[in-house]
């Protein structure tokens, strides 16, 4: 016996209804909060973290901020904050100006994109994302630098440095995400949130 | 998603533009860089000073045994040096007079700017330190930097009030050197923090002694004046079929605990970009 042709029900993939803060409010909040936040991040990155280096490797504070901005604010916000923190980092490096901006921007955009699509709640998600993104960011920075002809970035210790930076950033991740969310957190979702998901 | 891709494209183009602008030479990028470094210098100094004891404590806990051994070794070293100092004074004077007669510059005659190390390496991938003096004090890019024990590195970035020095242990650093025993030249290259330096281009037949002093070569066009101690030989091996020896050096200067250094205002006309 043949069943009657009944159209199969489709999964609901319309965006969930969320309360949205007016764009002007988010912008005003960021204008007020981002400058002191970034200033504190630069001081931490250049004056505090270099002195706390277990095994001669320290956490990368500005890369951590970029990753957390991607997690807290999505791909676009992550890309902007990553670009900004990268430029600030470049001011204190001997490598080409713009190299960290490129690497941090790409990493934060990728994290923001993945955060909206793949990530599911779980206690392991934040540390493992920060670990992977930070380690990947270090390798990306070194690889892009090598492509631009910078000597001494891709060496035998690169992998060890990347893993150690990833580990240290993952340890600092929860605190950094809370502060970054305060500074850049936006309730505007940039990708559809599956109804019933999350 | 489309908007985020457009944003990313815009920012990638902006980053590449910044890289190209920087590659073109001194200009707006240097103004931005110098402005940021100079503006934040006081805040960073105060913060670093406040955190320093914590960093020292952690380093002390991690390396307590090493410190004890090093103290013992240094005590012996001081006793020996006290004895040698008197005899070396007259030799030094003779050398200086001989070099003056030949018209060869001596490192002691090179004008220098004293500076304090105020910043540890910011990046995990480059070995640089920050000095509290900059272009306003007569420091320029390319100038050699020395500590009491030997060569530290070379100035790579200068702002008005600060300068950044690439240490000789940085993997991107290369120094023209000479083995004191044989007089053979070579090139000492960095291998990373707290690693030994590798000396390249030392001929297989050259006799290299353990603990032998290695100094800057000062060959024509060199970036460093001659006879600055670079390090001591730790190991030298020749592999079958190789055209040069594998020589490793321990840096003469204690690069992990730099405090005061001298920036040599070495003539840069011919030295820029040279080893």
Comma- or semicolon-separated keywords:
heterodimer, A: 198 residues, mainly alpha, Arp2/3 complex 21 kDa subunit ARPC3, 5 helices, disordered C terminus, B: 275 residues, alpha+beta, Thrombin, subunit H, six-stranded antiparallel beta barrel, six-stranded antiparallel barrel, 35% helix, 25% strand
Oligomer: heterodimer
Q: If classified by CATH, what would the architecture of chain A be?
A: Orthogonal Bundle
Give me the strand/helix succession of chain B.
HHHEEEEEEEEEEEE
Average of the residue pLDDT scores of chain A: 82
**Contiguous helical run count of chain B:** 3
What is the number of beta strands of chain B? Answer: 12
* Amino-to-carboxy terminus distance of chain B: 50 Å
CATH superfamily of the domain at 113-275 in chain B: Rod shape-determining protein MreC, domain 1
H/I helix tally of chain A? 5
Reconstruct the topology from this structure.
The complex is a heterodimer of chains A (198) and B (275).
Chain A: H1 23-48, H2 61-90, H3 99-117, H4 125-147, H5 158-184
Chain B: H1 2-23, H2 28-62, H3 64-102, E1 112-119, E2 128-131, E3 144-146, E4 151-158, E5 163-167, E6 174-179, E7 185-189, E8 197-202, E9 213-216, E10 229-237, E11 245-251, E12 260-264
Antiparallel strand pairs in B: 1-2, 1-12, 2-5, 3-4, 3-12, 4-5, 6-7, 6-9, 7-8, 8-11, 9-10, 10-11
What does the model show?
The complex is a heterodimer of chains A (198) and B (275). Chain A has 198 residues and is an all-alpha fold. Chain A has a single domain (24-184), classed as Orthogonal Bundle (Arp2/3 complex 21 kDa subunit ARPC3), CATH 1.10.1760. Chain A is 63% helix and 0% strand. The N and C termini of chain A lie far apart (41 Å). Mean pLDDT of chain A is 82; it is low at 10-19 and 188-198. Chain B has a domain at 113-275: Thrombin, subunit H (Beta Barrel). Chain B is 35% helix and 25% strand. In chain B, strand 3 (144-146) and strand 4 (151-158) form a beta hairpin. Residues 270-275 of chain B have low confidence and may be disordered. Classes of the chains: A mainly alpha (198), B alpha+beta (275). The interface between A and B is large, with 61 and 56 residues.
């Amino acid at each position: 016996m043949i069943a009657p042709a009944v159209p199969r029900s489709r999964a609901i993939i319309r965006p969930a209804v969320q309360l949205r803060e007016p764009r002007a409010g988010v912008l005003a909040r960021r204008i007020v909060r981002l400058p002191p936040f970034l200033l504190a991040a630069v001081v931490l990155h250049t004056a505090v973290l270099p002195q706390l280096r277990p095994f001669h490797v320290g956490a990368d504070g500005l890369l951590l901020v970029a990753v957390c901005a991607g997690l807290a604010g999505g791909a676009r916000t992550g890309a902007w904050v990553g670009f900004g923190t990268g430029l600030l980092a470049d001011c204190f490096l001997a490598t080409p100006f713009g190299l960290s901006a490129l690497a941090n921007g790409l990493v934060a955009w990728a994290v923001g994109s993945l955060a909206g699509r793949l990530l599911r709640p779980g206690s392991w998600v934040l540390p493992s994302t920060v670990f992977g993104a930070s380690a990947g960011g270090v390798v990306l920075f070194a690889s892009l630098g090598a492509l631009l002809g910078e000597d001494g970035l891709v060496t035998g210790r690169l992998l060890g440095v990347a893993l150690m930076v990833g580990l240290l950033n993952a340890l600092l991740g929860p605190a950094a995400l809370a502060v970054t969310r305060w500074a850049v957190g936006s309730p505007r979702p940039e990708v559809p949130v599956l109804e019933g998901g999350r | 998603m489309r908007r985020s891709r457009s944003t990313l494209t815009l920012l990638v183009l902006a980053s590449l533009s910044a890289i190209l602008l920087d590659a073109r030479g001194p200009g707006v990028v240097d103004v931005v860089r110098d402005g940021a470094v100079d503006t934040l210098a006081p805040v960073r100094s105060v913060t670093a000073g406040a955190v320093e004891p914590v960093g020292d404590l952690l380093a002390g806990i991690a390396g307590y045994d090493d410190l004890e051994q090093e103290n013992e070794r240094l005590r012996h070293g001081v006793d020996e040096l006290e004895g040698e100092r008197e005899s070396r004074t007259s030799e030094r004077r003779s050398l200086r007079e001989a070099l003056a007669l030949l018209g060869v510059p001596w490192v002691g005659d090179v004008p220098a700017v004293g500076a304090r190390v105020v910043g540890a390496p910011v990046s995990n991938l480059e070995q640089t330190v920050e000095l509290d003096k900059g272009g306003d004090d007569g420091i320029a890019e390319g100038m050699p930097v020395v500590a009491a024990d030997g060569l530290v590195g070379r100035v790579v970035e200068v702002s008005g009030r600060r300068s950044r020095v690439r240490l000789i242990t940085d993997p991107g650093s290369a120094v023209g050197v000479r083995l004191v025993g044989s007089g053979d030249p070579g090139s000492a290259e960095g291998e990373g923090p707290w690693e030994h330096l590798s000396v390249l281009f030392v001929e297989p037949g050259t006799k290299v002694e353990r603990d032998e002093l290695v100094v800057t070569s000062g060959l024509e066009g060199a970036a460093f004046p001659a006879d600055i101690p670079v390090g001591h030989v730790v190991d030298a091996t020749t592999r079958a079929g190789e055209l040069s020896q594998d020589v490793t050096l321990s840096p003469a200067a204690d690069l992990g605990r730099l405090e005061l250094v001298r920036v040599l205002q070495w003539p840069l006309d011919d030295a820029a970009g040279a080893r």
